[in-house]
Amino acid sequence: xxxxxxxxxxxxxxxxxxxxxxxxxxxxxxxxxxxxxxxxxxxxxxxxxxxxxxxxxxxxxxxxxxxxxxxxxxxxxxxxxxxxxxxxxxxxxxxxxxxxxxxxxxxxxxxxxxxxxxxxxxxxxxxxxxxxxxxxxxxxxxxxxxxxxxxxxxxxxxxxxxxxxxxxxxxxxxxxxxxxxxxxxxxxxxxxxxxxxxxxxxxxxxxxxxxxxxxxxxxxxxxxxxxxxxxxxxxxxxxxxxxxxxxxxxxxxxxxxxxxxxxxxxxxxxxxxxxxxxxxxxxxxxxxxxxxxxxxxxxxxxxxxxxxxxxx
Length: 312
Prior knowledge:
By secondary structure, the chain is an all-beta fold. The protein contains no helices and 27 strands. Strands 22, 23, 24, 25 and 26 form a 5-stranded antiparallel beta sheet that branches. A hairpin with a 6-residue loop joins strand 5 (54-59) and strand 6.
């Protein structure tokens, strides 16, 4: 099955729940997979991660700014609300009490969760057994994250995150690079080569890092350790349904198939894009072939997809 989050918000075509599609036929199974949280509401959902026997979802709207945990169903497609991992973080006066603001990406290293936050432009570290946000602020010249503004509001900032081999990979959208940090102490290890567009989403599969940056998909072999932390990314863009469509957060079913959400517009659009599946070769760099429209059209801009082998 494929779980999908969308841009969401308050538009007439906005989708603020997880939709589920069957694989490989693309049958639409449900449009409200997530139960409502005890406090607040679901709005502008972003990254989804399966970890520690739960589904974690970034509830990204600024007014919500939570990461929610859901129990996995033994059958069917209804995920029962379990608890908030963290949040809400807004005080009664509307001020953020922690660094968690407009969460986007989620990555787990055991019981430790790393959450990227677009409005505060930091990555927060949360231990599941002891929910307390820790952040490391680094100046830009020494690996800090860049940010750009539009009319005084954050326009481009930190996006998705991923973890492998003791390294935290972070999308620095304004500088068009992937930054690398040590999981042990948060120290800056370096950056990838500069990309043609700003990176927004990351996925890991078969010892490779996949990066969505505008309409281009990049791939690079994962560095084996922090002592040799370099990352060289190259284009492996598959054949899209049409030119110029941005690529969201992709997901793999293991090693043979990748699911790619294509974004039409910036949210609230109907149609908002589509979801395609591709065969993935085992060579380096991988080749994506056999383009198949799993979901030819969706009613809002798809943000992330997540393959899930459970349910029925």
